[in-house]
Amino acid sequence: MSHVVKKRKLDKTRQDRLYFDSYSDVTIHEEMIADHVRTSTYRTAILRNSESIRGKVVLDVGAGTGVLSVFCAQAGAKKVYAVEACSIAEQAAKIVRHNKLEDRIEVIRGTVETAELPEKVEVIVSEWMGYALLHESMLNSVLYARDKWLKPGGLILPSKAELFIAPVSDPVLEDRLHFWYTVKEQYGVDMSCMSDFARRCLMNSDITVNAVTVEDVLSHPARFAELDLYAVTAEELRSVGGHFRCESFGSAAVNAFCVYFTVTFPCPDKPQAQALVLSTSPFKAETHWKQAVLYLDAPVDVVQDTPVTGTVRMYPSKESARHICIHVDYTIGEQKRQSKTFSIPDWSSDSHLLFPRTRLECRFVSTNLKRKKGGKKTGFSPVVSTCVWLSEAGSSPPFPGSGGDERVASSSTSRGTGEFRVRQGRVTNHPIATQDEGHD
Ligand SMILES: C[S@@+](CC[C@H](N)C(=O)[O-])C[C@H]1O[C@@H](n2cnc3c(N)ncnc32)[C@H](O)[C@@H]1O
After folding, report:
1. Cβ distance 363 to 391 under 8 Å?
2. Distance of alpha carbon 28 from its chain centroid, rounded?
3. For residues 69 and 224, what is the distance between their CA atoms, to the nearest angstrom?
4. Is the CB of 130 under 6 A from ligand 1?
5. Whose CA is nearest to atom 14 of ligand 1?
6. Do the beta carbons of residue 167 and residue 246 sit within 8 Å?
7. In ligand 1, which atom is closest to the CA atom of 112?
8. What is the spatial distance between Cα 271 and Cα 228, in angstroms, rounded to a whole number?
9. Cβ 349 vs Cβ 359: under 8 Å
10. Per the record, which residues fall in region Disordered (predicted)?
């Protein structure tokens, strides 16, 4: 099956249509609201700022289901304009009525760039962050709203964003690279010559969204960029980045960099140091953003205190302004300087364009549970095949009868499909085979 991925430049209207369509389904909103770290941090931030919100006019940029607008009304806002471009606005309006807030929350269906509000606002609230912070490029819309609708001295929630980077190891990747050396022992065929090919395939230039385990982070993360939402301009968002320097905790192989972000909410009653932070750090509770993993071309060994230095630059891709690219120039220890540019994988068909946060996910389902007599499951067989498919809104496993006994782990890979092993209930990602489903 051919799998030629051609990058097509999409015109802006089409990009926006695809982008807003991706927010029209329930799954993405369910995932966002179920992300307790995200939603509860916003709720706490809004309630803690109730002094600044009470009796004031608020603009919720990209209101979705209207959850943040409702929090603002609960914090005492006199009026909330909940602006939402996609059809989820109808559900937001329903939720507003259901909560008897229609006198204070007005849902406006349309883009914030075209919406006409009857008045300026004192507060802007928005949840605009994409993978690696800037994927989706929604921050531009918040800045547009700030410049057009926020009164001087108004409040923006959140008000600051920061980006961090750290070198990481990836034991699953190491196992997958090593796998080709084990085939001879199993089947009498020496496939070790596949290892270079495997490395090129796996350590590619996709931005992989995955939850990095704390033990795999090889140094204190370094901050490389900060955005002040009161001051940053759309022009500055065309290139965001900075320098970083880390020192390795100990001996390990660096396989990748992990990039993550925090956003900060002001807390009027607390000193700056105690501001409320929504963090997507691997050292904090997992969020649906997980971390952006950027694989090097090949593993590099480090020992304790090996310096890892470089610069990161993030910018919108040429093909679609809503897709982020990350360029990293780096030096590890004595190695000469390397550079690599990463982008969100482009499966380039309308239905698989990776705007919505959920669609980067793959789902792993074991198909081969051990069973006792009488049908009660006893656990996983030591190695069982699993089936992986792209998680689309409402998609179901591509084989019958798997519903009740699924063992589903959520992750994302750069390839999207393939077969994996599950050992004692854990997906270990050893590929048994890689099957190309032609997602382009
Ligand atoms: C990440 S979701 C957040 C939804 C909701 N605020 C929440 O916290 O659950 C972003 C929402 O903003 C909407 N959106 C993005 N850009 C927009 C724009 N320029 N104008 C209006 N809505 C926009 C999207 O359709 C999407 O529903």
Report:
1. yes
2. 12
3. 32
4. no
5. 62
6. yes
7. 20
8. 18
9. no
10. 395-440
Q: Which amino acid is at 231?
A: A
What's the token pair of residue 377? 């499951």
| Mutate-to-test residue for ligand 1 from 17, 19, 23, 357, highest number of ligand atoms within 8 A of CB | 23
Q: What rounded mean pLDDT belongs to the chain?
A: 82
pLDDT (0 to 100) of residue 7: 53
Which class in CATH covers the domain with range 12-159? alpha beta
Residues 6 or more apart in contact with residue 375 via CB below 8 angstroms = none
- Tell me which residue has tokens 């750090």: 281
Helix/strand/coil for 153 = strand
**Which of 431, 434, 352 lies closest to 395 in space, CA to CA?**
352
Which residue type does 422 have? V
Expressed in angstroms and rounded, the spacing between residue 394 Cα and the centre of ligand 1 is: 21
Give the pTM.
Answer: 0.81
For ligand 1, say whether the CB of 86 is within 6 Å of any of its atoms: yes
- Tell me, what DSSP letter sits at residue 382? S
- Tens-place pLDDT, residues 349-375: 443 344 444 433 333 333 333 333 343
Q: Which residue of the set 51, 84, 102, 127 is catalytic?
A: 127
Average pLDDT over residues 174-178: 96
Ordered alpha helix ranges (H), 81-224: 88-98, 139-149, 171-187, 195-202
pLDDT over threshold 70, residue 115: yes
Count of beta carbons in the 10 Å neighbourhood of residue 11? 9
Query: What's the pLDDT band for 346 if we cut at 50, 70, 90?
Result: low
Helix, strand or coil, per DSSP, at residue 226? strand
138 touches ligand 1 (CB under 6 Å):
yes
Query: Does the annotation count 419 as an active-site position?
Result: no
Domain 162-345 CATH class label: mainly beta
Q: What residues does each domain of the chain span? A: 12-159, 162-345, 361-431
Rounded to whole angstroms, how far apart are CA atoms 312 and 241?
Answer: 5
Tokens of 405: 């006994």
Residue type, 230: Y
**79 CA distance to ligand 1 centroid (A)?**
19
